[in-house]
Amino acid sequence: MIADTSGNTVVTDDEGYLVDPAAWDETVARQLADQERVDLTDEHWQVLRFMRGYYEEHRIIPDARFVMRFLADELGYGRKAQNYLFKLFPYGYVKQACRIAGMKRPRAWSTG
């Protein structure tokens, strides 16, 4: 069971993705990260906040290439951004980053 900052139960689907991305908060993210055995660092939080901001602005889940561009341009990883993304989320962008960021599971995916 997952609860938000207020103690309200947050519903996930059978694969552990949030049913309602609006229910996400940092408490939920920490619980999801614990389930994935990911220790959240400042860089994880920067990626998660970027993903949430992109989702809020565009109403779609950011493709991995947008996150890699963020890592390259904003965090200075340049050409190593893809490798670094998978260092942060070793079991994959969709499985870990999207889940921890409170996104619904994408139906189809391109890593473009």
Automatic annotation (TrEMBL):
InterPro entries: DsrC-like_C (IPR042072), DsrC-like_dom_sf (IPR025526), DsrC-like_N (IPR043163), DsrC/TusE (IPR007453). Pfam families: DsrC. This is Sulfurtransferase. Coiled coil: none annotated. Its main location: cytoplasm. It comes from the Bacteria. One of its GO terms (cellular component) is cytoplasm. The keyword Nucleotide-binding does not apply. Transmembrane segments: none annotated. Part of a sulfur-relay system. It is found in: Cytoplasm. Keywords: Cytoplasm, Transferase. Belongs to the dsrC/tusE family. Its EC number is 2.8.1.-. GO terms for biological process: tRNA wobble position uridine thiolation. GO terms for molecular function: sulfur carrier activity; transferase activity.
